[in-house]
Fold:
Amino acid sequence: MIAKEDMYISLIENIKELVTVSEKDISLIMDSFKPKALAKKDILLFKGDTSNHMRFIIEGCLRSYYINEEGHEYIVQFGIRNWWINDLFSYLTKTPAQYFIQALQPTTILQIHRDDLDKLFIQVPVMERFFRIKMERAYVANLNRTVKSMSETSESRYLNFIKTHRDIEQNVPQYMVASYLGITPEHLSTIRKNLHQ
Amino acid sequence: MIAKEDMYISLIENIKELVTVSEKDISLIMDSFKPKALAKKDILLFKGDTSNHMRFIIEGCLRSYYINEEGHEYIVQFGIRNWWINDLFSYLTKTPAQYFIQALQPTTILQIHRDDLDKLFIQVPVMERFFRIKMERAYVANLNRTVKSMSETSESRYLNFIKTHRDIEQNVPQYMVASYLGITPEHLSTIRKNLHQ
DNA sequence: TAAAAAAATTAAGGTATCTTAAGAAAACTT
DNA sequence: AAGTTTTCTTAAGATACCTTAATTTTTTTA
Structure:
């Protein structure tokens, strides 16, 4: 459990990694973001609802996932502390979300409503730059995921995942890692068996 | 062939779709972007070189592609008129490009050097917002590609591609469409045969 | 317009991954 | 601690897609 005073520290640190903000800016930012606590398995965003907030994870673990017509689940993204998570298309276009977002552990987030963020962009223009850089990085990371999923075997993608995301691997069941990698849990299980021999 | 005066019109229109710019802003923008012409098959960016420009396509068609250790090619992105194309990771981090960018048709682009864009962000701050929104959209589009590649059959992805990107399909060989979709040209050929029966 | 190069097709055999189903192990709940 | 639920494993059979290789078609070049 995190004290309310401490909660905003990681958000401000996250912003300060990319842009310079004054004390005045900081208090405007802190006033705009509201905390929200989630129990394990709580759904933060339902498919079909509109996402109206940008969300920063203070503590815990979440997943965003897609369910197709046949009822199969596909994990779009994981999120842990100091990550941002959203259905960005829904947020940007005010259309019904395509994805669910669910807490996989007890989780605390700080979220800002779209209207407040639009105000913040005017009051603290450097936040434009902050989100531009965040978006650039998210885009690059996802494009890399696309290329790797085309060019590498599932075994190599799994090895890379556990190497670079051990913190996530320890917080989510194995079948969700499989889903994120685009393979079945049974297949991941056989990959792991082959690795250990 | 496009007259020099007309070339900047599509760039300015592209910017005006998302943000409001003054006449002063427009002339600053126009001064910063330089035209470049490419013949079919010309390489705009080589793997290993650093990308130092943001690039807007006036006319023609390009692809960015990745070659893995075994020498297999994977198409990361296509670009046609009014699209932006780059190896963004290389540009942002000043590291050697992972991808090649090549003209697939005679092509004209407008490009801005990183140093000039950094200046432009200060002179015309609304350009921060422009690129933030562009990045948001690019991120969302690519995440959608990721989810579709996990959840849909290659036939359905092909049908969706020719429906939504007929302009690209008509400018690139079929084996490149296959590469973009993450399948072999032979397999795309059999998909097409099955469709026509 | 003939020759050369590039692109697309076809088909056979191979492999990675999926589906289904059942049982074992681990993690929660009362 | 026992019961329940969730997660992981194993294995057999099915299938989507790949590899290889040869042939045909289309496009480009001289």
User: Anything to note?
Assistant: Residues 174 and 195 of chain B are 15 Å apart (CA to CA). The longest strand of chain B covers residues 73-80. The domain at 4-125 of chain B is CATH 2.60.120.10 (Jelly Rolls). Chain B touches chain A at residues 66, 68, 72, 74, 76-77, 88-89, 92, 98, 121, 125, 128-129, 131-132, 135-140, 142-147, 149-152, 182 (CB under 8 Å).
